[in-house]
């Protein structure tokens, strides 16, 4: 790639990365003997995606975001991080005990009581750690992103007790598909891949004596756990749902997860 010496000196990292991208693409084209028709189809896909609202960021999130997150946290100890995703909204209400995420009377989804602890890597409990929680309901709906769902529905913040423990009530989130009506969905379909994410709950944990953590908790046995379309789900972040049924046949679940924050 033709680059002036001055540019190389002022932006060495940018030059190195763009050179490597170019080199990798040339290698792929050569290795697979990509035809001109295939090249034109790729250009057409990029043009189509760029004309669709948020389709390029979606494609980048689906194919690359979890790799960046893994790299940024590879040296970290404690609970593994996970991508924040595009639906976080700051300023979720601070909840009062007993903690129940804000929800409607007939919120879609079976009742879930989620408990656990927050500790440091040396095992000390973290009292007063903040958990900022957000999730979809049992009908794959996120507040602020689906119409007719109240503001901050299934979004809330709580703090841990003296012994680092916490417990909150919510509903079991359903697995959902990332938007698949546009160019990204078309590409996934052409690849023979589905567009599902396994059910999950998002957490941002913080405490003034520990490094902040953004992660997601999944559920063992979820059909999409091993093939999360965004490649984010990790075995270490999956917990077991224990089911119960009341006298009226209503099912509810409990689960727990112990978070470990590095210092
Ligand atoms: Fe999500």
Per-chain topology:
Elements: H1 5-10, H2 12-31, H3 36-51, H4 55-72, E1 99-100, E2 111-120, E3 130-135, E4 155-159, E5 165-171, E6 176-177, H5 183-190, E7 196-197, E8 200-207, E9 210-219, E10 238-239, E11 242-245, E12 251-261
Parallel strand pairs: 1-5, 2-12, 9-10
Antiparallel strand pairs: 2-5, 3-4, 3-8, 6-7, 8-9, 11-12
The structure holds fe (ii) ion.
Residues 85, 87, 200, 202 line the site of fe (ii) ion (FE2).
Protein described:
There is one protein chain. The protein contains 5 helices and 12 strands. The chain has 263 residues and is α/β, with parallel strands linked by helices. The strands form 3 sheets. The chain has a 5-stranded mixed sheet with strand order 1-5-2-12-11, with no helix packed on it. A 5-stranded mixed sheet has the order 4-3-8-9-10, with no helix packed on it. The longest helix has 20 residues, at 12-31. The two termini are 43 Å apart. The mean pLDDT is 95.
Question: Could you give a short description of this structure?
Answer:
With 263 residues, the protein is α/β, with parallel strands linked by helices. It has helices at residues 5-10, 12-31, 36-51, 55-72, 183-190, and strands spanning 99-100, 111-120, 130-135, 155-159, 165-171, 176-177, 196-197, 200-207, 210-219, 238-239, 242-245, 251-261. Helices cover 26% and strands 26% of the residues.
